[in-house]
Design a protein that fits this description.
The structure holds two protein chains of two kinds.
Chain A: E1 9-20, E2 23-34, E3 38-42, H1 49-56, E4 64-69, E5 72-73, H2 79-84, E6 87-90, H3 102-107, H4 120-133, H5 149-162, E7 167-171, H6 179-194, E8 198-203, H7 206-212, E9 215-220, E10 223-229, H8 235-243, E11 260-269, E12 272-280, E13 284-288, H9 295-303, E14 310-315, E15 318-319, H10 325-330, E16 333-336, H11 340-344, H12 351-355, E17 365-366, E18 369-370, H13 372-385, H14 402-414, E19 420-424, H15 432-447, E20 451-455, H16 459-465, E21 468-473, E22 476-477, E23 481-482, H17 488-495, H18 500-503
Parallel strand pairs in A: 3-8, 3-9, 6-7, 7-8, 13-20, 13-21, 16-19, 19-20
Antiparallel strand pairs in A: 1-2, 1-4, 4-5, 9-10, 11-12, 11-14, 14-15, 17-18, 21-22, 21-23
Chain B: H1 2-8, H2 10-35, H3 43-59, H4 64-86, H5 93-115, H6 142-147, H7 151-169, H8 171-181, H9 183-188, H10 193-219, H11 231-241, H12 246-267, H13 270-274, H14 277-295
Helix pairs in contact in B: 2-7, 2-10, 2-11, 2-12, 3-4, 3-5, 3-10, 3-11, 4-5, 4-10, 7-8, 8-10, 11-12, 11-14, 12-14
The chains are: A alpha/beta, B mainly alpha.
């Protein structure tokens, strides 16, 4: 028992249960939050963390249980009441209007709707004072749409502070930040705690949890499975609690590359600024960087959606003349798209149709007629080989979980025996089991001689898997660094744009 | 030169402002709807209904401002139909809007025949008279153009200022704009996107109907079926032209009206003897399209325009 037990309880969740149809997202979850305390809510995807916080914030209504803030029960399903009681939430997907200014976004809803004036001057002054006090530097008159992701998050936090939030909920706050930005955020949060705020933050990054939290609440399949003081636990124990079993993170050997299968030399294209890159046979090349810095353009270029405007591009030894997705596939380039819902699959097509999206014309048709028998057999083989959990090949793919969808895409990609694999955020949103599975498969493809380009915002992932690491910033590509020659902080500086000028 | 004479005559500018007035009402109405995220294609029908409702109310004995109020309420009622279908039900705003235009137009015809079964030509009413403002109306050109109009025209200009104030200076206006930009941001503040959007559509539709009523109560003193004549569609374009800003939309409405007033006068000059009159009728539309192309380049469309919002969906 620690001194925290005597501290005032500001938030009490009692027996929260929430069901979506047959799925129980939260199963009788209870915990307390004390003044000035930081609780990390830890769990895999689908463990019910976000659902729980949405109930607390009044966006969902719990089927059972109650939420008390400062000793008073919150009426269920009423975000207004939660805000008035002093609960502020920073959503994972920011709720900001891009065409409005920072101060407009912050003051939205904070004054009621009856007023005759927004008193813009006073609002700006208050925002400036809060920015200064909590080191959340942002221009109140800037349009939110023009801000970086890190700045937008500051606006979200300011929004909560502006309303005198006593309890701040942050849903995966570092998912979109560079390591430096994440450090700055933690600095701000520590100050907020020192000023008497209490925090709940959702994460599945163990090092963050250990760095910031006082106490960890672990959710698994909607149940609260453990509560630990950070001082009494370890990353290994937390990982095991989260997954429900001992987790062994696979180690990946480094490999010397073979011949370059895809080479870019001083390539310019919309979003790319003089990129020089070699993807070598038998190597995984990692591409780190904050999203929106040209990774999308590079990925579009390699998959044939855009062509170079200048510079040289060589694929499997031959210079590229005309470049389209069709020629890219023809040259043995296979893609795991960044967004498996939007571009990776067609949601209302069944598994068979999705499995043959790239090869239906060449492999699964005869004389202009579809050969559905072969397509179905092929899909059944994929389902078995890649362990896709599903009712069968006729299931619409939208009904699959993210992990299973990604396994099918992975199968579609790898079964063609590609020379070059473009893996754009291949494990985003997957749980640890699925992550390890995808990583092992990519590693096998590398051992089979393929050149893999791994694009990810997760520096840990890049540093574990890649043989060579490049960093992208504002359309520029850093030189390749062999794994282990740069620390995360050094890579973070490249991500922030430092170092490029020295090279150029 | 004839053209210069036209442009320097007070009567030309007075006509431009008069022609602009119904457009201003309806454009501001549409602008309010679209700022909240709802494209209201019911505008044409709502204007027809407003023109009829205001006129028939005055014919039945209500004072002129009573007629304006009836038109406003008629517009709000039709706006409510649009709002229910497009906001909580989230149906296609194109389908709802076009459907509402057909419904409102047909309902107007029907009501007209029910109220006036035996009439061959519609009865006249005592319309708004010009109300010159002392001193101001004596300013050369500007005076007769701006300050010798009917009260309803003054109301149109006051409305623009009022709506601009509400949109940019009040918490309510901010909430309306935010509902059109990011409904999720509004919902996260515990405000109801449904209420805000429905309210905006109803109020906006009310102003559209007043724009229609201007035709029967101020510009003219009777009601014809063809009198709205596509003005609603022009107002949709004027909102884009005005980049969803009240001031710029006002400018656009006056500009379009000036083209219209200009072509009427141009028909009577020497040029009018050479070219067929249809060419002149086309002029304002062609010039509007050109202006639209130039102006709308940099416009910031409300990000959530035509995007239905369902709470709890991601």
């Amino acid at each position: 028992m620690t001194a925290k037990d005597q501290a005032e309880v500001v938030l009490r969740l009692s027996n929260i249960t929430k069901r979506f149809g047959s799925l129980t997202a939260n199963d009788a979850v209870s915990f307390d939050l004390a003044r000035g305390e930081v609780i990390a809510l830890l769990g895999e995807n689908g463990a019910g963390k976000t659902t729980l916080m949405n109930i607390l914030f009044g966006q969902y209504t719990a089927d059972e249980g109650s939420v008390e803030v400062l000793g008073r029960a919150l009426p269920p399903g009423n975000p207004r009441a939660a805000l008035d009681a002093g609960v502020g939430m920073v959503h994972q997907h920011f709720t900001l209007a891009g065409n409005l200014t920072v101060w407009e976004n912050i003051v939205l809803g904070a004054q009621g709707l009856g007023g005759l004036s927004l008193r813009a001057g006073a609002v700006r002054a208050r925002i400036r004072a809060l920015s200064e006090r909590f080191h959340l530097r942002v221009d109140p008159d800037a349009k939110v749409g023009k801000l970086t992701v890190g700045e937008r998050q500051r606006v979200e936090i300011l929004k909560a502070l502006y309303r005198d939030a006593r309890i701040l909920i942050l849903d995966e706050p570092t998912a979109v930040l560079t390591p430096q930005e994440a450090d700055a955020l933690f600095g701000t949060l520590r100050e907020a705690v020192a000023a008497g705020l209490s925090l709940v933050f959702i994460s599945h990054k163990l090092h963050e949890v250990m760095a910031l939290a006082d106490r960890v609440v672990v959710l698994r399949h909607g149940k609260l499975v453990a509560e630990r003081a950070v001082t009494d636990t370890s990353r290994e124990e937390l990982a095991a609690l989260m997954v429900g079993a001992e987790v062994t993170t696979p180690e990946f050997q480094m490999h010397a590359g073979g011949a370059p299968l895809l080479s870019l030399h001083a390539v310019h294209a919309p979003g790319l600024n003089g990129v020089t890159l070699d993807l070598c046979a038998g190597q995984i090349t990692g591409l780190a960087g904050v999203s929106g810095n040209g990774q999308g353009a590079l990925s579009d270029l390699i998959s044939g959606l855009i062509s170079p405007t200048s510079g040289e591009m060589t694929v499997t030894g031959q210079p590229v003349q005309t470049w389209s997705p069709r020629t890219a596939i023809g040259r043995g380039i296979a893609r795991i798209p960044e967004d498996r819902h939007k571009t990776g699959t067609i949601a209302d097509f069944d598994l068979t149709e999705n499995a043959i999206l790239e090869t239906y014309a060449t492999e699964f048709s005869r004389g202009g007629w579809m050969d559905w028998g072969r397509a179905r057999a092929h899909t059944e083989a994929l389902i078995a080989t890649y362990d896709v959990r599903c009712p069968g090949p006729d299931t619409r793919i939208r009904l699959l979980s993210g992990g299973n969808m990604q396994k099918l895409i992975l199968g579609r990609v790898l079964e063609t025996g590609p020379m070059i694999i473009l893996a754009n955020q291949p494990v985003r949103g997957l749980d640890i089991g699925a992550v390890n599975y995808v990583h092992r498969r990519l590693d096998e493809a590398r051992l089979g001689g393929a050149a893999v380009l791994l694009i990810s915002e997760d520096l840990d992932e890049i540093m574990r898997l890649s043989d060579v690491i490049h960093v992208m910033s504002e359309g520029r590509l850093s030189p390749g660094f062999a794994r282990g020659t740069k620390t995360p902080a050094e890579l973070g500086q490249w991500m922030a744009g430092d170092g490029f000028d020295a090279v150029a | 030169m004839d053209i210069l004479d036209i442009l320097l005559s007070a009567s030309f500018w007075a006509a431009a402002i008069r022609i602009a007035s119904p457009l201003i009402f309806a454009t501001i109405g549409e602008l309010i709807c679209e700022r909240a995220g709802v494209l209201n294609l019911g505008i044409e029908g709502i204007m027809v209904a407003g023109a009829f409702a205001g006129w028939i109310a005055v014919w039945a004995g209500l004072p002129l401002w009573g007629g304006v109020a009836v038109a406003m309420l008629t517009g709000m009622a039709l706006g409510f139909v649009h709002a229910v279908l497009s906001v909580p039900f989230g149906l296609s705003q194109h389908v709802v809007g076009v459907g509402l235009t057909l419904l409102a137009t047909a309902l107007t015809f029907y009501t007209y025949r029910v109220v006036l079964p035996e009439v061959s030509s519609p009865p006249k009413i005592e319309a708004f008279q010009a109300l010159p403002i002392p001193l101001l109306s004596d300013i050369p050109i500007l005076g007769p153009a701006l300050f010798a109009q009917t009260p309803l025209t003054y109301a149109a200009f006051i409305l623009v200022a009022l709506v601009a104030w509400v949109l940019y200076r009040t918490p309510l206006g901010l909430a309306v704009r935010a509902a059109g930009e990011s409904p999720a941001a509004v919902a996260a503040q515990g405000l109801s996107v449904t209420v805000i959007r429905m309210g905006a559509v109803m109020v906006g539709s009310g102003f559209m109907a007043v724009g229609g009523a201007f035709l029967t109560l101020s510009a003219f003193d009777s009601f014809f079926f063809e009198m709205v004549n596509g003005r609603g569609w022009i107002c949709i374009a004027l909102v884009v032209f005005g980049a969803w800003k009240p001031g710029k939309a006002l400018l656009g409405a006056v500009l379009f009206a000036a083209f219209d007033a200009f072509q009427i006068r141009l028909q009577q000059t020497g040029v009018g003897q050479v070219l067929p009159y249809q060419v002149f009728l086309m002029m304002p539309y062609i010039l509007s399209i050109l202006a639209l192309v130039i102006m709308s380049r940099r416009a910031e469309v409300p990000a959530a325009l035509m995007v239905p919002f369902n709470k709890g969906e991601r």
